[in-house]
Write a structure and sequence with these properties.
Helix Hairpins, 9 helices, signal, Ion_trans_dom
Length: 235
């Protein structure tokens, strides 16, 4: 039964590859039948679990409520989408975002729930590091606006260079990943090679210091919460 549950969870998540907009499109009827089959299996698994669990315990378990709500939302969305399709009205399958609920909340997914809870418990503790990083990013963006905004520089495509504050924030945020380093730095470097010092300082502070600190905080807190959960499970 556990293997069958995992199979239909995987099948339900995989439907996103075949539904519009799809990587490998299949007819709507085919994907609908598969989704209804998966939902019926989930409902049957939930019914079986209710038969072997005390009534009060079953209805107090948040996981069971989440599964039932996800099934109801998926069926409602499928029905609405099918009706709108009959009238040639374009719509979006918004219920796709609830499909991971089945992966997390079934009784067989205990290890996944532990990992999910560890991530959830870690988030508040990394907020301070994230806020410091965002503050540094905003300050460097303000410095970039003051340094380059009044010099009428242009990108290789002829667009204004570092004249809009929000665009600067986004460009420097992507620069943290070093994905677009030449595109961001070259207009300023071509104007004056001394401006390279600004980008070197930015990469050192935000990429090498803050990202390393961020990763260390995430790893240590995640490991701590996971140990606590595993210790409580053993007890």
């Amino acid at each position: 039964m556990r293997t069958a549950t995992y199979f239909f969870i995987f099948l339900n998540l995989s439907l996103a590859l075949f539904e519009e907009p799809a990587v490998y499109p299949l007819p709507f009827l085919a994907t609908s039948v598969l989704e209804v089959l998966c939902l019926l299996v989930f409902l049957g698994r939930l019914t079986h679990f209710a038969k072997v669990t005390l009534h009060n315990v079953f209805w107090k378990d948040t996981k069971n409520i989440c599964i039932m709500v996800a099934i109801l939302l998926s069926l409602t969305d499928l029905a609405i989408y099918g009706v709108l399709r009959l009238y040639d009205v374009r719509s979006i399958r918004w219920s796709r975002i609830v499909r991971p609920i089945f992966l997390i909340n079934f009784a067989e997914s205990r290890q996944i729930r532990r990992a999910f809870r560890s991530i959830r418990n870690t988030l508040p503790e990394i907020t301070y590091v994230f806020l410091l990083f965002m503050f540094s990013l905003l300050m460097f963006s303000l410095m970039a606006l003051k340094l380059f905004g009044e010099r009428n520089l242009q990108t290789a495509e002829g667009l204004p260079y570092f004249r809009n504050y929000l665009e600067i924030v986004f460009d420097l945020y992507v620069l943290v990943t070093t994905a677009n380093s030449p595109d961001v730095m070259m207009p300023a470097f071509d104007f004056s090679s001394w401006y390279a010092l600004f980008f070197i300082a930015f990469v050192i502070v935000n990429t090498y210091i803050f990202m390393s600190l961020f990763l260390a905080v995430v790893y240590n807190n995640y490991k701590k919460h996971l140990k606590v959960m595993l210790g409580g499970a053993c007890d």
